[in-house]
Specification:
single chain, five-stranded parallel beta sheet, 15% strand, D-iso_2-hydroxyacid_DH_PdxB, oxidoreductase, alpha/beta, seven-stranded parallel beta sheet, 12 strands
Length: 325
């Protein structure tokens, strides 16, 4: 069976190239593929392994031998999953591979916004403490999380884990879930509507997939619902947030802080309004990039492929549209 990896570079960084290029299958591995290279490189493959390669209906029609798309991510918005299903192509993802890695990054971002530790470290190294004339000083307000309301939009595995950590910080937790899920065994916790989540949250953390319903979720209208000085954190998908509206809210002081590991355009142009907005913190889509999480992706993807070959595919995201034949 021919298996082609079209963009494996980000998984490879810092660890040995992960794919089993030896064995009964014919593996072809590319670190990256430009849009102009994708069709030629994908021809003849029964299984494509992708991360950010866009797979639309036209490309699938040009690849009549394609039967499985293995996405090395939890989100599958780069694939037209319905079109794939209608063509008998299985689309599978790697859910929950980096739950702890991303959850920890959420709080790395939040704590930096609240305490500005890097700013104070730089200040000390410049000699400011030595010139302060006292045993302590601070350059920014020091914000304590205890007692504040932590809002979670999207209460899957990751949203639930982030909520647990927020609770451990002594925060009240409110969540908006897309489907019926059990409540956790701690208090105070409540399920609320989208509108109530925006109104109640001192910190709002986004953990939803990118869909037509969630695109532009955080915009001028929803930001106006939030408490003055509140904070938004996005580690889901960039287009869930309207960057221009967030930048305006930061400049006006309406929004107290914004942190993101994802942006609407990746990599961003230097005129992205969030890059120059005050009280913003941007990291380059690295929340998932711990060695452990990347090894989990490889392990899950290889099991997805094994199960597909055995006729019992797992982690299939397009079951509702999938035809057999």
């Amino acid at each position: 069976m021919k298996i082609t990896v079209l963009d494996g570079k980000t998984l490879q960084a810092g660890i040995p190239f992960p794919w089993p290029v030896d064995g009964e299958d014919e593996w072809t591995c590319f670190e990256s593929s430009s849009p102009d290279e994708v069709r030629e490189r994908a021809v003849g493959a029964e299984i494509l392994v992708i991360n950010k390669i866009v797979m639309d209906a036209a490309l699938m029609d040009a690849l009549p031998g394609l039967r499985c798309i293995a996405v090395t991510a939890a989100g599958t918005n780069v694939v037209d999953s319905r079109a794939a299903g209608e063509r008998g192509i299985v689309v599978c993802n790697t859910p929950a591979y980096g739950t702890d890695a991303v959850a920890q990054h959420v709080f790395a971002l939040l704590l930096e916004l609240c305490r500005r530790t890097s700013l104070h470290d730089e200040s000390v190294r410049r000699g400011d403490w030595g010139r302060a004339g006292d045993f302590c000083y601070c350059l920014t307000p020091q914000v304590e999380l205890t007692g504040k309301t932590f809002g979670v939009f999207g209460y899957g595995n990751l949203g639930r884990r982030v909520a647990e950590i927020a609770h451990a910080f002594g925060m009240k937790v409110a969540a908006c879930a897309h489907r019926s899920v059990p409540a956790p065994g701690y208090e105070p916790f409540s399920f609320v509507s989208k509108e109530e989540l925006f109104r109640q949250s001192d910190v709002l953390s986004l953990h939803c997939p990118l869909t037509e319903e969630t695109r532009g979720l955080v915009c001028r209208e929803t930001l106006d619902m939030m408490k003055p000085g509140s904070v938004v954190i996005n580690t889901s998908r960039g287009p869930v947030v309207c960057g221009a509206d967030v930048a305006d809210a930061l400049r006006s002081g309406r929004l107290g802080g914004f942190a993101a590991d994802v942006l609407e355009q990746e990599p961003p142009s230097m005129d992205d309004p969030l890059l120059s907005a005050p009280n913003s913190l941007i990291t380059p889509h690295l929340a998932w990039m711990t060695d452990g999480a990347r090894r989990n992706i490889v392990s899950i993807t290889l099991e997805n492929i094994r199960r597909y070959k055995a006729g019992d595919p797992q982690n299939v995201v397009n079951k509702e549209w999938l035809r057999r034949g």
